[in-house]
Protein: CbbQ/NirQ/NorQ/GpvN family protein
Organism: Ideonella livida
Amino acid sequence: MEPAMNAMTESLTLAAPPAPCGLPWYAEQAGEVALFTHAHGQRLPVLIKGPTGCGKTRFVEHMAARLGRPLITVSCHDDLSAADLVGRHLIAGGDTCWHDGPLARAVRQGAICYLDEVVEARKDTTVVLHPLADDRRVLPIERTGEELPAAPGFMLVVSYNPGYQNLLKSLKPSTRQRFVALSLGYPRAEVEQAIVRHEAGVDDALAARLVRLAQALRRLGDHDLEETVSTRLLVMAGRLVAAGLPLGAAVQAAIVQALTDDADTAAALGEVVQAVI
Ligand code: ADP
């Protein structure tokens, strides 16, 4: 018998968080809404590439609500196995009963199943993803010998961050080539400004200053950073300012200190901050 499923890896959302118009608010970058809609209509799985905090999760939440599908999100980690996704037998009150994992539930419900950072998951997960991601659209359940056909509306969506790629953690061509791929980056300035304004509740002038800062920091290139400033960090800085924190303190906490633990690098970033805002 296996241990209970890791509850931390999974969340079920129908349409959260609702925006005024009823959909999670999403500012489009470049035609991804139409692409996703057509992929769903054609029953094709989608692979979303992009750096952390660039809007991948919000995009999937928006599309699930827009297409009227439930959304089941799984944050993949290096211990996540095929059984975590598919399900397992558990003992309850002396009886053994089968418990669907999040992927099996999505397949039965015709939900959108979003596997965030799929390259982190254990390699045995490809065995269950391949037959779901191609024309077969079935989920093999090894433990019960079942082959579960995907309900209409089911869609497999995976994401990964190419910046974190290494040889051990990359998608095999046989996996990649089952997906329609779409690449998101940080949005262009006017879109990012609208996102910061909307998400942080700040005025246009402050949103523009934060976006200018992001562009200056991104121009620095790697600069000993694993990853540069994301839209998410700009939103966080904006929220702190909207709550009453001075801009300098907000930027230090939400951006500079979030990007590095190294004092010299933090000082170098601080100089850019001084020069731009
Ligand atoms: P990722 O999944 O790529 O790490 P998220 O989707 O969680 O990033 O985005 C982080 C935050 O940034 C969101 O909660 C949202 O506030 C904001 N955001 C980023 N891009 C967009 C966008 N295009 N439209 C609306 N909000 C966005």
